[in-house]
Design brief:
101 residues; mainly alpha; 4 helices; globular
Length: 101
């Protein structure tokens, strides 16, 4: 079954942040983030090459890292939404759209 990695990445970034925020258990949010990364990474590895998979994994992890300093500048919700949208767009453009064909 083909997974829409754009939805997986955006959902796990937003969901992981919300779980960590609402429960106060940051590792629980990290587990959601990791699970989303594993699911998306497996699909990227299946549908793209290793270089593209590495670039998408770097984008996903970079989005998580960038959301923290960005949140200090524009707020938590806007930061998470921005990095989630960018990651989803990259996933769609590079992987999901290719596998729709």
């Amino acid at each position: 079954m083909r997974l829409p990695t754009s939805a997986v990445t955006a959902g796990s970034l937003i969901g992981g942040w919300q779980i960590a925020r609402r429960t106060g258990v940051r590792p629980l949010g990290g587990a959601v983030l990791a699970a989303g990364g594993v699911l998306a990474g497996r699909e990227w590895a299946r549908t793209t090459g290793p270089v593209t998979t590495g670039a998408l994994v770097a984008t996903y992890l970079g989005a998580f890292g960038l959301s923290h300093p960005l949140a200090r500048k524009i707020g938590a919700w806007p930061a998470v939404l921005v990095v989630s949208a960018v990651t989803a767009a990259a996933s769609h453009a590079v992987s999901d759209r290719r596998s729709d064909r």
